[in-house]
Amino acid sequence: MLHRRTITIQRVLAQSIAAPSRGPSRAWPVASRLYSTSSFNSSSSSVDTRKAGPQQSNGRLSGWIRRISLMSASAAAGAFVYAKADPSTVGGFNGLPLGPIQPTILTVEEPDQPFPSDIKANPEKLNEIKQSVLLEQQMQELEPVQEYKDKVKQGEWKMADPYWYLTKTTRPHHLMAGTLRGENMLSVHPLKFERKDKKAIVLFMHLGRSLCGHDRIVHGGLLGTVLDEATGMVALPNLPYHVGFTANLNINYRKPVQADQFVMVKAEFEKIEGRKGYTKASIHDLQGNTLVECTALYISPKNAIGMVANYVKNSLGI
After folding, report:
1. Mapping DSSP to helix (H, G, I), strand (E, B) and coil, where does residue 224 land?
2. Which of 13, 109, 142, 302 has the greatest number of beta carbons closer than 10 A?
3. CB neighbourhood size of 31 (10 A)
4. Please, what is the end-to-end C-alpha distance for the chain in angstroms?
């Protein structure tokens, strides 16, 4: 029912934008009823749709008010669907008929390319790409990776893109997926395995030589960032409307983490209490030794649905 309502609002929006303002639109009462009966409010709406029809049905002003209200309703409806649906099944809004106003910030990008993917080839950069491709091949052949691929075949787990929500515009500004990507840093895209219940994930990644604090030992702050990313990946799918922030991150450094090696990061969602989500995570070497471990508390804000709606509206440019 919710999906049909969203489709109707978006269809009416497209018709309203495409058609010139020549008095009352037949489609307007339909969208007005859908908008007024929705279980959410949009702060961008500048008129009460139930009262606007009789008094402001003519003229350019009424046309713009109608369009703005419909755009707000569409953004709020899309935000609600996004918050309630599984992004991997919806396809980051690819499954919704938003047409030309589809928010690019929520679309699924093409698979990540070896670093660097946007720089003209020269001997030095070609060497970086070769090293990245080589590390990618080595990671795919790791024994623990093969074990989780077998679990995927058995239906217990699935492979997922850890940064499906990033675009070519936002990716360069993301700390883990953009800023720290490069030779001797995070040279390859992490491999992510996710349990079907979304309460556990495993990441495989390579920590390069240029991520150190002490020489040849990975910086503790970088390890904390990795753990924060991992716990967030299991916390957000289980929090209200998939929105939350790190409230507490308690880290225990068990052993020094040597640079220039592959590591396995495990994270689990433990429990939820209202708007609070409790998680834990750990970093291991390929021999199974625990190097770093943590617990983390995530809190979903009181205005979570409003934040999602604003996020979508900003993506729409309204």
Report:
1. helix
2. 13
3. 25
4. 26
Q: Could you tell me the CA-to-CA distances from 183 to 122, 129, 173, 210, 257 in Å, in that order?
A: 15, 9, 17, 8, 19
* Per-residue b or e along 67-103, where b marks 16 or more CB atoms closer than 10 Å to that residue's CB: ebbbbbbbbbbbbbbbbebebeebebbeebebeebbb
- Euclidean distance between CA atoms 175 and 172, whole angstroms: 8
**Quick one: tokens of 23?**
């008095």
Q: Quick check: 114 pLDDT over 70?
A: no
pLDDT for 37-55, tens place per residue? 333 443 444 444 444 444 5
Residue 65: its pLDDT value, please?
Answer: 60
- pLDDT tens, position by position, 242-292: 889 999 999 999 999 999 999 999 999 999 999 999 999 999 999 999 999
CA angle 40, 97, 56 (to 5 degrees): 55
Q: Say which DSSP state 8 is in.
A: H
Neighbouring CB atoms inside 10 A of 146's CB total 10
Sign (positive or negative) of CA dihedral 291, 157, 78, 166: positive
Nearest to 2 by CA among 79, 106, 63: 79
Residue 252 to residue 121: CA distance in whole angstroms: 42
Give the Cα separation of 98 and 48 in Å (integer): 24
For residue 179, give every residue at least 6 positions away whose Cβ sits within 8 Å of its Cβ, in sequence order, or none. 172, 173
The per-residue pLDDT for 2 is: 46
CA angle centred on 245, ends 259 and 156, rounded to 5°: 65
Say how far apart CA 87 and CA 84 lie, in whole Å: 9
Return the amino acid letter for 54: P
Integer angstrom CA distances of residue 238 from 160, 284, 300, 311: 16, 24, 10, 19
CA distances from 131 to 115, 116, 122 (A): 9, 11, 14
Q: Percent of the chain beyond pLDDT 70?
A: 58
